Amino acid sequence: MDYTFNTTLAAPATGSYHELYEIASLNPKLSFLEKLWWTHYAYWDNDIIATGIITFLAHEILYFSRCIPWIIADAFPSLFHRFKIQDTKAPPSAREQWNCVKYILAIHFIVELPLIVLFHPMMEFFGLQYTLPFPDLKTLALQTTIFFFVEDTYHYWLHRAFHWGPLYRAVHRVHHQYATPFGLTAEYASPWETMLLGFGTIGPPLVLGWCTGEVHLMTVLVWVALRQFQAIDAHSGYDFPWSLRRVFPLWGGSDWHDDHHRYFRGNYSSSFKHWDVLMGTVAGPRGKKMKKSE
Ligand SMILES: [Zn+2]
Ligand SMILES: [Zn+2]
C-alpha cells in the first residue's frame, strides 16, 4: 500500500487499530470510510492479508445479513405469504434452511476462501487500484452498470449451456435441488458452478482494470455486494409491490428467476430480461404467451 498517496501520512511501523485511526484522522481530506481503509491496511502491514480479510468478511457479512429479511418473511407466513410467488407451496423448514447454510459455508471456506487469498496478486497483475482516495460516485456507478450488463450476458449463455444434459448432470443439478427457492439458495451450487459462474462477476472488473487502469477495489466490493443482493433477492420467492422490477422493467428479479426454478427451462439470465426475450427462452406460460402473440 502506498501510504503517502494523496495523503500526508507516513506508514507507521506498529500500532493498535485505534492508534492508527487517530493518525489517519490527522488528514482532513479523508472520509470516514477512507480513514478505516487506511487504518486497516496500515494495521496488517501486509496487503495480501488486508485485502483478503476485507473481501472475505464483506462476502460473509453481506450474504448472510441480506438473507435475514427473507428468513423472517418465511417465519411469519400470516404477514408475508400473500407476497409469495409459488403461494401453494409451504415455506422452507428450519432444517432445510440450516442444511443450506452449512453447505454454503463449506463452499465459502473450501472453494472461495483460497480464491479470495489469490485475489490481491491477481488484482495487482491486472492493474486494479486500492490506494486512496476512493473513486468518485460517477465512476463507481458507471463501472458497476457495465459489470451488471456484461455479467448478465456471460451468465445467460453459460447458464443455458449448463442445461445441456451432460453439463446439467455434472455441474448444475445441485442448484436445481430447490424448485421453490428461498434467499439462502442463491449460492447453493456445485463448486464447479461457483467457480465458472463466479468468473462472470470477477472477470469484468479485472478486464476493465487491465484495459483502463481505472478500476478500484472499492468499486469491485460494491459491485460484488450488489450482485450478491441481486442473486439473493432473485431466489427469495417473494415479489413485493415495491420490487425493483416494477420501476425498472428490464430487471428480472424474483418474479423472473423463480419461474426458472419452477419450470426448469427458460429465464437463464441473472439480472435482466433482454437476453431471454431476444432469444425466445422466456420460461413458463409467460413464454408461451409471447410466442403465440408473435
Ligand atoms: Zn438453471
Ligand atoms: Zn437459481
Describe this structure in words.
Keywords: Membrane, Transmembrane, Transmembrane helix. This is Fatty acid hydroxylase domain-containing protein. It is found in: Membrane. This protein is an all-alpha fold and 294 residues long. It has one domain (46-293). Helices cover 65% and strands 0% of the residues. The chain is built from 13 helices and no strands. It has helices at residues 17-24, 32-44, 47-75, 77-80, 94-125, 137-162, 165-172, 191-212, 217-235, 244-247, 253-263, 274-279, 284-292. α6 packs antiparallel against α8 and α6 (137-162) packs across α9 (217-235). The termini are far apart. The relative contact order is 0.12. Mean pLDDT is 92; it is low at 4-9.
Unreliable residue runs: 4-9
Q: How many structurally independent domains?
A: 1
What is the CA–CA distance across the termini?
57 Å
Overall mean pLDDT stands at 92
Largest pleated sheet: none
Notable traits:
binds zinc ion; 294 residues; Sterol_Desaturase_Related; oxidoreductase activity; 0% strand; transmembrane; Fatty_acid_hydroxylase; transmembrane helix; mainly alpha
Topology:
Blueprint: H1 17-24, H2 32-44, H3 47-75, H4 77-80, H5 94-125, H6 137-162, H7 165-172, H8 191-212, H9 217-235, H10 244-247, H11 253-263, H12 274-279, H13 284-292
Helix pairs in contact: 1-2, 3-5, 3-9, 5-8, 6-8, 6-9, 9-11
The structure holds zinc ion (ZN) (2 copies).
One zinc ion binds near residues 175, 257 and 261.
